[in-house]
Amino acid sequence: MGGHFRHTKWDPFLIISQIVCLQALYYLGLGIWLILMNFITGDLLSSDTVFNYQVLNLSEGHGRIISTAYVLNALFSALALWWVVQRTKLCLDFSCTTLLYHVLLCWAVSGRWPASATWWLVQVVCLGLACVGGEFLCMRTELAAIPVGLGGGRVDL
Description:
Elements: H1 12-41, H2 47-51, H3 61-84, H4 91-110, H5 117-142
Helix pairs in contact: 1-3, 1-4, 3-5, 4-5
């Protein structure tokens, strides 16, 4: 079937590899941001900071620090989407998949379904930031001008 711009075929290995890579980058970025934030504030870091939804409470200073780390990680996730996925139309899919696995891991580790409205608000805002940021970066790359005629040679059509 000819005439399709950037025709892609079904490649489950590539898709699974991209999901694993994005999930690893998500937790790597979140870990780095949390370490930096906790270093600045002097708070202790534990796995509850990442996986326990009850820790994310915006009425406390520690909860605001954690939410700031999540927002900064959303911007890092946008860069990861641009680097790993490189397709504008796939950014929403991969962003939602990353959030889905994060929710499932939080549920598995804490033993409870995340029931805090604040936790869900932060996650959805970060999902939007990562998705829109990734789409913006991918679109800029996809729409970049293709240089024609470099080298000054004559081209016969």
